[in-house]
UniProtKB/TrEMBL annotation:
Classification of source organism: Bacteria, Bacillati, Cyanobacteriota, Cyanophyceae, Nodosilineales
InterPro entries to which the protein is assigned, alphabetical: GAF-like_dom_sf (IPR029016), HrcA (IPR002571), HrcA_C (IPR021153), WH-like_DNA-bd_sf (IPR036388), WH_DNA-bd_sf (IPR036390), WHTH_transcript_rep_HrcA_IDD (IPR023120)
Gene name, Swiss-Prot/TrEMBL: hrcA
Record-linked NCBIfam families: hrcA
Organism listed in the record: Leptothoe kymatousa TAU-MAC 1615
Protein name (database record): Heat-inducible transcription repressor HrcA
A Pfam family annotated for this UniProt entry: HrcA
Length: 362
């Protein structure tokens, strides 16, 4: 078990712990005292290093996979390393920002295409699986609405969102509202629907979909009943599109799954199934958490069994001050966390800048 206050580690213990993690990350081999001396300038004897590593093992930060082997960081050891012994790499953050700036310029792409390209760059630079959630629809902002009659008392409602594309659904209007069956004069009906479209656009432009059901429409006169029907339809649309199955994009599996941690076939098969066919299970781990912007799940902290040999790092990207999605990387717990964290945070910041720069005025 890890001590309650990990800050009680001496500076030498911190130094040895940091060196052990970095050596294991680079070699994937259990770490011995002599290998640390050869790789790092610790200025102490092998016996001193052995004593320090023994103390770290008793504290739960290291363990021996075999009696005669060197030591390997435990999940608690990686947690200590992440929380207390490192800072995100500035050079990695700068490199990630440069790659995104050079290769990912907003040119009217769909948001899904933009995010797909961003995680492709993130996966390439980090060497890990990269994941991103599509913007959560209930947080999308309405830009424009359009109504088109398709049958008696039925209209197609098209909701254009701020740069994220459009969503549509068929709405049945109450009897006695727009037209009576098929209008005798299609020009008048088209005019009515255009007036209503303009009215709804004026009322709802700039509002998140999640606010539609809370608006007060009591002051609306003769239009109240079908306006309410349409607003309820918009709210229903948001609710229906919240299901996460299709909201997580994943790339970079091939490279990371070649790591030695995934040599065991059953373990590999379970992880591939999770990432390829069952990724909706990742939603609770990837969803926006405004209280904990940077989330890091390490090993057994992951509630999903196929991921309990992995680490997942994620951070939100924003639309102005509102978090609308998350981006992250997943790899073995033997991860270079200072680089991975920096790459994720740089991607998060860049995506937030693009999302916040979308023009809602037209």
């Amino acid at each position: 078990m890890a001590p309650d206050n990990t800050s009680n580690l001496s500076s030498r213990q911190q130094q040895v712990m940091r060196a052990t993690v970095r050596h294991y990350v680079s070699t994937a081999e259990p770490v011995g005292s002599r290998s640390l001396l050869e790789a790092f300038d610790l200025n102490v004897s092998p016996a001193t290093i052995r004593n320090v590593m023994g103390a770290l093992e008793r504290a739960g930060f290291l363990y021996q996979p075999h009696t005669s082997a060197g030591r390997v960081p435990s999940d608690s050891g990686y947690r200590l390393y992440v929380d207390e012994l490192i800072k995100p790499s500035k050079p990695t953050a700068q490199r990630m920002d440069r790659l995104l700036s050079e290769q990912l310029q907003w040119q009217g792409w769909s948001v899904e295409a933009l995010l797909q390209e961003a995680v492709h760059i993130l996966a390439h630079l980090s060497g890990y699986v990269a994941l991103v959630t599509l913007p959560q629809l209930e947080k999308m902002v309405v830009k424009h609405l359009q109504l088109v009659q398709i049958a008696a008392h039925q209209v197609l409602l098209v909701v254009v969102l701020d740069g994220y594309g459009s969503e549509s659904m068929v709405v049945r209007l109450p009897q006695g509202t727009t037209g009576t069956g098929v209008a005798e004069d299609s020009t008048d009906l088209d005019r009515e629907l255009q007036i209503l479209s303009n009215f709804l656009t004026t009322q709802l432009r700039g509002r998140p979909l999640s606010e539609i059901s809370t608006l007060d429409w009591e002051e609306i006169d003769t239009a109240e009943h079908h306006v309410l029907a349409l607003c309820h339809a918009i709210d229903d649309l948001a609710q229906r599109k919240r299901h996460p199955q299709t909201h997580i994009l994943v790339t970079g599996m091939a490279d990371v799954l070649s790591q030695p941690e995934f040599a065991e076939q059953n373990r590999l098969r379970n992880l591939v199934a999770l990432l390829a066919d069952e990724r909706e299970q990742l939603w609770p781990l990837m969803c926006v958490d405004e209280k904990h912007p940077l989330k890091i799940w390490i090993g057994q902290e992951n509630p999903l069994e196929p991921m309990q040999g992995c680490a997942l790092i994620s951070a939100p990207y924003n639309r102005d001050s509102m978090a609308v999605g998350t981006v992250g990387v997943m790899g073995p717990t033997r991860m270079l966390y200072e680089d991975a964290i920096a790459a994720v945070e740089a991607t998060s910041s860049y995506l937030s800048e693009i999302m916040s720069g979308l023009d809602l005025s037209t």
